[in-house]
Amino acid sequence: MRKREFYTIYQIDLNKLNKQPTEQDKIRIGENLVLKLINALKGRPYIEGEENFIPELIYVNITNKMKNIEEKIREIDKNGFTINGTTYKRLGKSAAMARTGRIAFVAEELKERLEELIMLGKKVDEAVISKYEAYRGLSFSTCLFSDAVPRKVAIVDEYKTTINEYIKTIKNGKVVEGYENVKVTLWDGMGVHSPEWGKKVAKSLGISYVPVGYQIRLFPSIKGMSYEFDFKAFYKEKGITTIKDVYGKEWNIEELDAVWNTSMFKFWKYFTSWNEFIELREKYYAPLQMDKIGIARWVIPTEKADKYSKTSYQYLQNLKLKGSELIELAQYTKELVEKVYEGDYRYTMAFLGLLANNFDEEEDNEDMLMANKLYTAFAMNPKKIYNDPHFKRFLKNQLQKTITEMKLGKLYIEGRNSFICQDPIAYLEAAAGLPIKGCLNKGEFYSAGLEGYRATFRSPLIHSSEIGKDLFVKNELTEKWLKRYDNVLVLNAFDLSAQKHGGADFDGDTFFHTPDERIVNATFTQNNPIVIDINDKATGQAEKITEEAIIEYDLRTLDNRIGYITNLATFWTNLGSAKANVNLFDEHLTKLRIWQGIEIDSAKTGVHPVIDDEVKKFENYKPYFLWRYKYNSKGKLATWTNKASMNILCRHIEHWEKEKFIWKKWEETDIIEAADFLINKEVIEQYKEEVEELVKVIREYYRQYNAELAELWLDNKFEDQKKMKQFYNKWYLKVNALHQNKELLSSLAVHVCYKENRKNEHSFNFPWIVAWEGILKTLEAKQQEEKILLRKLQETAEAIDTIEFLGRKYIEEIKKKHISTDKVIAKTKEKISIEVPVVDIVGEEFAEKIKKDNIVILKPKIYNNKEYVSLFQNEQYIGAIAHKNDTIDILSSLKDYYNTKFKVELKKINKKSAVVELHIA
Predict the structure, then answer these.
(1) What is the per-residue DSSP string for 856-869?
(2) Lowest pLDDT segment from 356-370, 451-465, 663-677
(3) Which residues does UniProt assign to the signal peptide (predicted)?
(4) Sign of the CA dihedral running 445, 496, 436, 154
(5) CA gyration radius, the chain
(6) What is the Cα–Cα distance from 19 to 8, expressed in whole angstroms?
(7) Spatial CA neighbour of 225 closest among 419, 458, 418, 417
């Protein structure tokens, strides 16, 4: 599958725009239209594995706690700001950026051209500013780009109707309930495409299967979820050969790639036809190689989805579950943690695998890399490695993290998140002007392979009425047309199921669903009407798009109170729970549910809710579990909620942790024995004449390593992954420059760390960082002839003695062969990168060469009888790595990489030197 591209830009706080940005101001973001267009306009290629810094784009981070905020926003919106001699002007922000307080600014030289490209040359003089900004802001959506642009699409009108339902709502500031005609837009943000087009997209992205649904971004302003449906066969059965779009064009159904609607095409009114839209895209985007469609996400089949997922406190606190019942629900997660703690190597391998399986993720993470090394080592000798001091400490950190999450209601239960879809048969009937019958009746749901009741949830969740107890059925129509709708929840077209779940729509929203009867039976289904804002989707007034209007919009979107409203609801829910009735303060919770919906949409509508004083009078108080483990004991503790179910669960997990886990004792191990197992005595004997001097150097390196590690901790608490990676790579290269025998280096590193410093050492990670290759090679040589492995179980009769970990079954298997470490070593070494100084160059000329071609080959160059590690391109020498006190050891190690291709990332350019970062290509 094609990997996502990542770029680096500056994100700077509003109150720091007068300062020079630093490396700490850089953030990494996935590819989007704006980034791709900037690079195309600058003629700058994307280079895999490099930083791909975009200096022309800056995100300004804004919070309403900053001083003189209104004055500063007016200033930058009006005049921009200047950094490094470049003036930046406001470009816009997506709805998500508005919620998180960020605005994008672009180099002034590119602003006009980018705005023209984003709007395909269309001028909009008047609009609802919040919607205008949100729809233009789709260009900041992260997605993968595919060449499979659908050329023939019928855009039909969105379908609005009313559904009469018994609901709760707010009228004149009071909560009322009764039957109301609720206005709804069916299939909001959803359409269908042909199976043929779906295959083209999958092929273009290298997906090994054909997803039944794609979350699309066809810029500008088309967004939504498109599901596969054989609409050609469907309409043929109905005797329908053409369909009319919103522009009045009659389309031959056999020629269509998709049938989408105006709820997906936000700017449809600004185009005279679909053909004009496609032609303008070709005119503006094709010259820049950007006539593509963005794919943000897609449906994965059930077999690839998680069978078990974590709950949240929002879900659990709104169920009819006593504290004792939550404790029972936690048993499964407790047992998993206990089995790893108790040393069950099968569960330990599965637990490590959760981390190691992420090894190929684009975002390097040192914990993931270490998990892969430890997973491999553990597979070769579980009993010995389980008692290794570094392994123990690493495992302890991961287990403690899981336990803390349990206190916050994150418990593993059977269930998963799935995209939602609304009856596509009813959709096609409506699109063709047919009577809407659909394939599902009111109250029915469908998903291939599911039958019976399931509890459904959508985040954020405020009120107990938002949890569904939904009946999944199948019938002749679903089996004929929807059998591919696996891991998709299909809602009917006749009730308010989407509105019930926090006002969900169908442009990519997901529900968490579970068949767990304890949860299904704990939903509030009686006397708990759906909470609906009958004035839902209220919008601001259309106005002229002026500089002042944009400034006012930015000021209006400063205050994001989604978390604030959620915390108020958590307080009232837990206070009710403490009094044995979750819905005791139903009026407050009903209002908060409606206000939350208004607040979520405020980035698009510009409308914020006004919260009653009575509802917010305890705004600074939080229930114990939240106060202690999410907010680190900050704020005020609501002691009168102690009997709430979530607090009972939290206290139980605390007690269980204290009683069950004696971490200090658990960490105790025979360090000398562990060291002896990792040391290759034969290799030490072989090189005994060199050992004395080598061990002196490694002792000094060990001292320096720990001193620098302490500085990093004080600097950023190890949160800067890039700094940590550079630090680890530097010491890996320095140590490996000392000798060609990896097992000798690892044996001496283990000796220094495990034996000589065992009383002062805490993590024992030094040898696993600097000499991990040697450790794995030593373990490989010490494997037993018959090796017990763990493999995922195929569902066959061979299963006799199995274990289950998060719903996936495993079986022990005897393998009469060694585990080879070669692949693990090779794969890990691909991650090596190092920053070095380059000399013997003309700075600007060198920079120009690297910009044109960033691939170099390391080779030796002899000058004055001295060998220099040098950079070559097309057999031509272009520069050498400087001989300095802090690079001599690294240079020696880099000689092992002669004739290896490296990617070069420029960090600093001087007149006759440069600083570069080398990555194995």
Answers:
(1) EEEEEEEETTEEEE
(2) 356-370
(3) none
(4) negative
(5) 30
(6) 19
(7) 419
Strand partners, 90: 105
One-character DSSP codes across 275-298: HHHHHHHHHHHGGGT---EEEEEE
User: Which residues are CB-contacts of 730 (< 8 A; sequence separation ≥ 6)?
Assistant: 834, 890
**DSSP track, 201-220:** HHHHHT-SS--SEEEEEETT
Residue 820, pLDDT score: 58
User: Does residue 695 have a pLDDT over 90?
Assistant: yes
Peptide bond into 220 cis (omega under 30): yes
**386-390, 870-874, 896-900 — which is least confidently predicted?**
896-900
Bridge partners of 191, per DSSP, are: 226
Is there a cis peptide before residue 424, judged by omega within 30 degrees of 0?
A: no
d(CA 487, CA 768): 41
- 172-203 CB burial, b ≥16 within 10 A, e <16: eeebeeeebebebbbbbbbbbbbeebbebbbe
Angle, to 10 degrees, between the axis of helix 331-341 and the axis of helix 345-356? Answer: 100
φ and ψ at residue 191, rounded to 5 degrees? -145, -170
**Alpha carbon distance 166, 437 (integer Å):** 22
Give every CB contact of residue 353 below 8 A, 6+ residues apart in sequence: 375
> 526-578, pLDDT tens digit by residue?
999 999 998 755 556 789 999 999 999 898 888 778 889 999 999 999 999 99
> For 832, phi and psi rounded to 5 degrees?
-65, 135
DSSP string, 311-332: --HHHHTTSS--HHHHHHHTHH
Measure the CA–CA gap between 257 and 193, rounded to whole angstroms. 6
Instruction: Identify the band that residue 717 occupies on the pLDDT scale cut at 50, 70 and 90.
Output: low
Spatial CA neighbour of 430 closest among 707, 210, 240: 240
885 CA to centre of own chain: 41
The three-class DSSP label of residue 335 is: helix
Q: Taking a C-beta distance cutoff of 8 angstroms, is the pair 816, 786 a contact?
A: yes
Q: Which contiguous run of DSSP H or E holds residue 754?
A: none
Question: Domain locations in the chain?
Answer: 6-119, 153-302+428-443+473-516+523-531, 558-660, 671-782, 832-920
Enumerate residues 6+ apart whose C-beta is below 8 A from 300. Answer: 211, 487
- In total, the chain counts a number of residues equal to 921
Q: Chain centroid to CA 239: how far?
A: 45
Find tokens 């290794």 and name the residue: 388
Helix axes 562-578, 645-660, angle to 10 degrees: 90
How far, in Å, CA of 628 to CA of 527, rounded?
34
The sign of the CA dihedral 474, 478, 484, 490 is negative
What amino acid is encoded at 787 in this protein? Answer: K
| Residue in the structure block whose two tokens are 């001599």 | 888
CB 869 within 8 A of CB 895: yes
- Over residues 317-373, the pLDDT tens digits come to 999 999 999 999 999 999 999 999 999 988 888 888 776 654 434 445 667 778 888
What is the token pair recorded at 912?
């006759």
| 767-808 pLDDT tens trace | 999 998 899 899 888 875 434 444 444 443 343 455 667 766
Q: Which helix (H) or strand (E) holds 229?
A: none
Nearest to 694, CA basis, from 770, 628, 792: 770
The answer to whether 604 and 620 are in contact (CB under 8 A) is no
Q: What is the rounded distance in angstroms from the CA atom of residue 192 to the CA atom of residue 304?
A: 23
CB neighbours of residue 567 within 10 Å: 20
Task: Compute the distance between CA of residue 402 and CA of residue 127 in angstroms, rounded to an integer.
Answer: 48
Is the Cβ–Cβ distance between 144 and 295 less than 8 Å? yes
Count CB neighbours of 829 within 10 A.
Answer: 13
CA 677 vs. chain centroid, Å, equals 39
